[in-house]
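Handout, section 3.2

Students often ask what a structure token actually looks like in practice. Rather than define it abstractly, here is a full record for Protein BONZAI 3-like. The first block is the sequence as you would receive it.
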Amino acid sequence: MSKSDPMAVVYMKKRNGTLEEIGRTEVILNDLNPVWIGKISVAYHFETVQSLVFHVFDVDTTHHNVPVKTIKLSDQDFLGEASCVLSEQTSNISFSLRKYAQRQDWHQLC
């Protein structure tokens, strides 16, 4: 069994519960504990609850050399998700969201 090639997709949860994609990280090859370098900017709105949702996918090797925006997520293996509220993270100078688990059984360590 090979290691995953993870990529994270960041979403903002809208008031109606739908998710709006706001960015994707780069794909990290053969890594079970990825540290992504790319930054995804999010506009912070004071006194507004802004829920962020992170989906992590194992990217198929045929997509390693293509722009991440062109990767069809439904063709990738879903590894799990994490979420947080943006206002709770604004005091953290270097925000780091760590989740440990398999599939959707992740536990938050914010």
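Discussion prompt for tutorial groups: The chain is about 0% helix and 30% strand. How would you have guessed this from the sequence alone?
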